[in-house]
C-alpha cells in the first residue's frame, strides 16, 4: 500500500525519513517548516514535494501527516494545523504521549517512532531501524504498521504505559554509555594518551555484550571484587570529585548485581 | 624475525595468543599449566609445543617467556620459574607493573599487553588488537616491538606512570559502558519489553561516538537540560535507589560537562 504523506518539520529525522519514504514508493506531497528555506532544502531531496511555511493543509492530497519536530514544539504545531477530513496525524517522538495530538483537527492520531539516533551527516539504513507504533484506533495502527513495514522489518506496538520505561532504558543504553566513553576520552587526553588504543576494546565489549548479554560479559576490578584496584582508581580520580563518585557508585552497583 | 616462545598459563589470552603467534611464524616450544590437562588442551591447538606442569625451563629452547595468568598469580610464577640465560620474561597484564618480574631469574623483563577482552568462545582477529609494550631495556623493547608487529600493526610504548590512567580509562570505556547496557536490559525485562529493539540504537550510538568523539555526539534529556524528563525518570527508578542515584549522578555530570 502506497501513501501520500506530508512531513512537518525539517530536523534530522525528517531529513532521513522523507527520502526513505519515497524510496519505499510513497509520495511526499508537502514539507512544512517555519523557516521556508529549511523546508526547501529538504524538498530538494524529494521528487514533487512542495515547501510550505503555513499550516493550512485543507487542500493537501496527503492522508498521513507526520510531525517530526522537537518534543516541545509538537503541541503547538498539532493544535494549529488544519487537516483534510479523515486524516491521520502522527508524531515521531519517543518521549511524548499520544494525548499531545488530542486537541488537533485530525480524525485519527498515532505515533511512529523510529528508535534510532539521527544526524544529517551520517547515512542511515532504515532496514535496521525498529519502529515503535502506537494508536488508540486499530485501523490506524494497521495503516502505521504497513507504513513502517515498507521501511523496516522491525516493528513493535508499544503501549502508553511502557513508553517511559523504554525511554529510561534508552537513556542508559545510549546517552549514558556514550558518557562513559566521554569520561574515558578525558582521562586519556589528560594523561596525553591516544584514545585510539581503546577503540578495539570498546567495539569488542559492545559486540560481545549484545551477543551474549551484558550480565554474562562483565569484566574488570569490580566484578572480580578487587578492592585494592578499586581504591587505587578512586584515589587516582581525586582531581574530579564527581567523576570519582561515579566510579565508586557504578563499581558498587556492579558488585551488588552479581 | 621469528622467535621461540614458551607460554605460561592456559587462560583466555594464552588460548588466543598461542595459535596467533604460530600463525605469525613463531614457534611455541612449551605451554606451562599447574593443571597439565589444561596445558595439553592448549598444546593440541599448536604444532610442536610440549605441555609442562613444572617450572624448570633451564633446558628450554625458548628465548621469550610469556606469563599469561591472573594478575594475582603472576608474582609466584615469576619467582619460581627457572629460565635459561639471556631470556626475556614478559607478562600480558594491563594492571600489573614491570617490577613484579623483578625477583625472577630473567635477564630481561617486559610487558606485552594486548588491550582487548578475550573469551574462548569468540574468534578474535589480532590485527585489530593494540599491543601496549613496556621494558626498561631498549633492546628488549625492540624485540617486543618486532614480536607485537608480527601480530598487529597497532603498537604503543607505554610508560609505567601511564598504566593506571589507561586502566581507569579502560574501566569506563568497557566495564562501565557494559554496565549501562546491563541496567538497560534490566529495565526492559522488568517491563516485559524486548531488548532487541534497543540494539540498533546502541550500535549506532557507539559507532558515531567512536567516529566523531563522545562529546560531540551526546544526546538525551540531560544535555538538553530537560529537567522535567530527568525528574520523571528519577521517580520512575524509585524501585531501586542505587540505580536512581546512578541516573541522577551521570545526568548531573552530563549537564556539568557542556
3D structure, described in words:
- In chain A, helix 9 runs antiparallel to helix 10.
- Chain A has two domains: 4-158, NAD(P)-binding Rossmann-like Domain (Rossmann fold), CATH 3.40.50.720; 163-257, ProC-like, C-terminal domain (N-(1-d-carboxylethyl)-l-norvaline Dehydrogenase, domain 2, Orthogonal Bundle).
- The longest helix of chain A is centred in the last third of the chain and has 31 residues, at 160-190.
- The mean pLDDT of chain A is 95.
- Chain A starts with a strand and ends with a helix.
- Chain A is an alpha/beta fold.
- Helices cover 47% and strands 14% of the residues of chain A.
- Chain A has helices at 12-23, 36-43, 71-80, 138-149, 160-190, 199-212, 214-217, 221-224, 227-236, 241-257, and strands spanning 4-8, 27-32, 50-52, 64-67, 88-91, 108-114, 131-134, 155-157.
- An eight-stranded mixed β-sheet of chain A has the order 3-2-1-4-5-6-7-8, sandwiched between helices.
- Chain A has ten helices and eight strands.
- At the A-B interface, helix 5, helix 6, helix 7, helix 8 and helix 9 of A face helix 5, helix 6, helix 7, helix 8 and helix 9 of B.
Amino acid at each position: 500500500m502506497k501513501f501520500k504523506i506530508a512531513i512537518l518539520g525539517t530536523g534530522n529525522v525528517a531529513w532521513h525519513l522523507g527520502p526513505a519514504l519515497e524510496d519505499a514508493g510513497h509520495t511526499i506531497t508537502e514539507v512544512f517548516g517555519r523557516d521556508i528555506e529549511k523546508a526547501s532544502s529538504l524538498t530538494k531531496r524529494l521528487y514533487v514535494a512542495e515547501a510550505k511555511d503555513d499550516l493550512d493543509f485543507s487542500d493537501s492530497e496527503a492522508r498521513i501527516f507526520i510531525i517530526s519536530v522537537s518534543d516541545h514544539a509538537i503541541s503547538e504545531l498539532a493544535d494549529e494545523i488544519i487537516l483534510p477530513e479523515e486524516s491521520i496525524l502522527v508524531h515521531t517522538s519517543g518521549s511524548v504521549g499520544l494525548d499531545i495530538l488530542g486537541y488537533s483537527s485530525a480524525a485519527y492520531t498515532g505515533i511512529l517512532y523510529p528508535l534510532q539516533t539521527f544526524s544529517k551527516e551520517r547515512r542511515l539504513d532504515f532496514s535496521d531501524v525498529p519502529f515503535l507504533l502506537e494508536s488508540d484506533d486499530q485501523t490506524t495502527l494497521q495503516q502505521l504498521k504497513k507504513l513502517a513495514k515498507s521501511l523496516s522489518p522491525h516493528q513493535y506496538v508499544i503501549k502508553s504505559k511502557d513508553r517511559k520505561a523504554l525511554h529510561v532504558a534508552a537513556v542508559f543504553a545510549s546517552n549514558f554509555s556514550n558518557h562513559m566513553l566521554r569520561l574515558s576520552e578525558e582521562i586519556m587526553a589528560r594523561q596525553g594518551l591516544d584514545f585510539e588504543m581503546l577503540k578495539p576494546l570498546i567495539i569488542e565489549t559492545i559486540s560481545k555484550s549484545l551477543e551474549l548479554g551484558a550480565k554474562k560479559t562483565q569484566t574488570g576490578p569490580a566484578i572480580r571484587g578487587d578492592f585494592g584496584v578499586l581504591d587505587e582508581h578512586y584515589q587516582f580520580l581525586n582531581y574530579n570529585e564527581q567523576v570519582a563518585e561515579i566510579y565508586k557508585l557504578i563499581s558498587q552497583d556492579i558488585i551488588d548485581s552479581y
